[in-house]
Design a protein that fits this description.
Elements lengths: L23 E5 L3 H13 L3 E5 L2 H10 L4 E5 L7 H9 L7 E6 L4 H10 L3 E4 L4 H55 L5 E3 L3 E8 L7 E8 L3 E9 L4 H14 L10 E3 L5 E3 L2 H14 L7 E9 L4 E7 L5 E3 L5 E3 L17 E5 L5 E5 L1 H9 L8 H10 L9 H12 L10 E8 L8
Parallel strand pairs: 1-2, 1-3, 3-4, 4-5
Antiparallel strand pairs: 6-7, 7-18, 8-9, 9-12, 10-11, 12-13, 13-16, 14-15, 14-17, 17-18
Helix pairs in contact: 2-3, 9-10
């Protein structure tokens, strides 16, 4: 009679591919005979095997030489299998496959073992063929676990790189915001007969709105409100170009403040400035940028204002009684058609009246800020701001923006850039600038 080799199942040992993810196994068994038998089977299958007599001894081995696979008896002195399994799971290491060996068949034993962190169970005495199948399944799970861990490490490294790049971009955008704000260094100027105040609040770090003002001697002042199409970096760069041009940094005949025959600066007519800007934008045909604009000049003594509107929201004349009147013909945006032209229109401010130029972001925010949302939201907001008690001269735009921000739902920001230019006319009796 031929005696069957207990180290071999009927189907032979597992193939290298079946246990490719296993390198080191730990057998924990207080019975020396059972421990040596299991260790011999695993060594014959090509695994490096460590042995321990109880859970405490096994735990010490795991801290210095972590195994990929653990075969642990349930009933052992000093520390039993479930207690060892819990301690094994608490170790700071990669995942290890844990099989509990037990002669117990009660359902609550299985539940107790799973609660302790075991992956699988084998009933004693161990059948080599069943052991092979369980180990092969464990090898597949460990392989998937290692792949997942590798991908998580790769994702972690990629995330760290992205966070670093985001931090650098955020720093650049903060600097860009400071630069863009420097394009509007002066938010309020008192000319004696008239005050000019500016509001510029990008919805993000940087935006595509631009406002500004400049004086031409003691008699006239210019002002503008511009909205470059789009948002983000491209629009902000276009704003920087336009701001440099309008401030006269480029010099020559293209600057809005020109040197006249007497050496005194004079302001270009609003339609001429719109056409000059139009030519400049169309020269750079690859950029494809366009903008809307309101540009005007004001005679400080008489209150006469000459304006051009190029696709921008209609300027609003705010009367002393709190009512408002929309002005202007509309017109095409700047940078769309080469032969476009923009007619000017004029008005004369009366003492106590205000003139507001604004971007469409202010319209949208005001429409959302009233209940129910309404196209008349801005008119209602302007009227309530004008009636606010104690509002200081030159503080109208600050009060208006504060009301807009208060109307936002908690944690929500503005959907578009918000900008405005406000003229507050006191009349010729206000004195010379």
């Amino acid at each position: 009679m031929t005696r069957q080799d207990p180290c071999r199942g009927q189907s032979g040992p597992p193939t290298p591919a079946e246990i490719a993810g296993l390198r080191h196994a730990l057998v924990v068994e207080d019975s020396a005979a059972q421990r040596r038998l299991l260790a011999a089977i695993l060594r014959r299958w090509g695994l490096r095997v460590s042995e321990a007599r109880n859970g405490a001894e096994a735990l010490a081995l795991c801290t210095t030489d972590p195994p990929d696979l653990v075969l642990s008896d349930w009933m052992m002195p000093v520390m039993d299998g479930p207690a060892f399994c819990r301690a094994f799971r608490d170790l700071p290491r990669d995942y290890g496959y844990f099989i509990l060996l037990t002669s117990r068949e009660e359902r609550n034993a299985v539940a107790e073992g799973l609660d302790a962190g075991a992956d699988d169970f084998l009933t004693k005495p161990v059948d080599p063929q069943e052991l092979r199948a369980r180990i092969a399944a464990g090898a597949r799970i460990l392989d998937m676990q290692r792949q997942l861990s590798d991908r998580n490490r790769q994702l972690g490294a990629t995330l760290a790189e992205l966070q670093g790049a985001h931090a650098r971009i955020n720093d650049d955008l903060v600097q860009a915001r400071r630069f863009q704000q420097s394009l509007v260094p002066e938010r309020l100027r008192d000319f004696g007969t008239l005050r000019l105040s500016l509001l510029l609040e990008p919805c993000g770090h940087i935006g595509g709105d631009l406002v500004g003002m400049f004086a031409a001697g003691a008699e006239r002042a210019g002002f503008y409100s511009i909205d470059v199409a789009g948002h983000g970096i491209a629009s902000a760069l276009m704003c920087a170009r336009i701001g440099a041009f309008l401030s006269g940094l480029h010099g020559g005949e293209q600057a809005p403040a020109l040197e006249g025959m007497t050496g005194q600066p004079r302001l270009r007519r609003p339609p001429d400035l719109a056409m000059t800007l139009n030519r400049r934008l169309l020269q750079d045909s690859e950029a494809g940028e366009y903008l809307t604009m309101c540009y005007g000049t004001v005679d400080l003594a008489s209150g006469r204002v000459d304006l051009v509107q190029a696709g921008h929201p209609h300027p609003l004349l705010l009367r002393r009684d709190g009512s408002s009147v929309a002005l202007g013909p509309g017109g095409l945006p700047v940078g769309v058609l080469a032969d476009a032209s923009w007619p000017s229109f004029s008005l004369r401010l009366e003492p106590g009246e205000r003139l507001l130029l604004h971007s469409d972001g202010l319209d949208d925010a005001a429409a959302r800020g009233v209940a129910p949302p309404s196209e008349q939201g801005l008119a209602r907001l302007l009227q309530s701001t004008a009636q606010e008690a104690g509002i200081s001269a030159g503080g109208f735009l600050d009060g208006l923006f504060a009301r807009l921000r208060q109307s936002l739902p908690r944690g929500e920001g503005f959907a578009d850039d918000i900008s405005a230019v406000l003229l507050e006319y006191d009349g010729p009796q206000g004195g010379s600038p």
